């Protein structure tokens, strides 16, 4: 290895280290509560972690984890929803779900069988003053009567490293129970809903 080659390799290594440091710094937060994050700060965190989330969810080859970003976006930007541990969420709806879901209807409907919602999440650690990718949380509407205890919703998830999450159905559905009138759907907050 020539001196030039060694110097080039060292320079590339230094550049990668600097890039990694910047990626970590761009996820730093200064607020005391995730609800105190301003919209531009939420977008900046999402932009910072965007590629890491996409790569991580797809890492194990899961079909949804690899393709959900080609689905319909359900909001103008990610937002803190209040559920899911006060994570920042960004929800996508597959072709079957999109038309009904984007009406943000409050009652009197059932989502079509085959509807899938995929929610990217960013976990905000107030203690560590940092944000990091959270799991990709999914809801799939199954055949009528197939899972009566969850009104036919199947709750699943993918960890940020692409591994499948173990999900207790009752744990997820208990949180969705207050939204029975809207087929157990909790929509993005009003200020970020498309067309609102």
From TrEMBL:
InterPro entries reported in the protein's UniProt record: Cytochrome_P460, Cytochrome_P460_sp
Signal sequence, renumbered to the chain: 1-23
Keyword Signal annotated: yes
Domain Cytochrome P460 residues, every copy: 67-185
Superkingdom: Bacteria
Assigned keywords, A-Z: Signal
Protein name from the UniProt record: Cytochrome P460 domain-containing protein
Species the sequence originates in: Ascidiaceihabitans donghaensis
């Amino acid at each position: 290895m020539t001196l030039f080659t060694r110097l080039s390799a060292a320079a590339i290594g230094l550049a990668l280290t600097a890039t990694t440091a910047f990626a970590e710094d761009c996820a730093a937060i200064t607020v005391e509560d995730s609800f105190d994050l301003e919209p531009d700060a939420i977008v900046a965190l999402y932009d910072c972690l965007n590629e890491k989330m996409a790569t991580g969810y797809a890492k194990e080859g899961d079909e949804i984890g690899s393709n959900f970003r080609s689905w319909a976006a359900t909001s103008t930007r990610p937002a803190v929803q209040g559920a899911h541990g006060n994570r920042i969420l960004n929800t996508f709806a597959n072709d079957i779900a999109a038309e009904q879901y984007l009406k943000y209807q409050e009652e009197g409907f059932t989502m079509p069988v085959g509807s899938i919602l995929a929610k990217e999440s960013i976990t905000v650690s107030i203690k560590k003053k940092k944000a990091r990718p959270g799991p990709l949380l999914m809801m799939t509407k199954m055949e009528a009567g197939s899972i009566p205890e969850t009104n036919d919703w199947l709750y699943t998830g993918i960890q940020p490293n692409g591994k499948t999450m173990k999900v207790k159905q009752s744990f997820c559905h208990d949180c969705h129970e207050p939204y029975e009138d809207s087929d157990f759907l909790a929509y993005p907050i009003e200020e970020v809903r498309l067309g609102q």
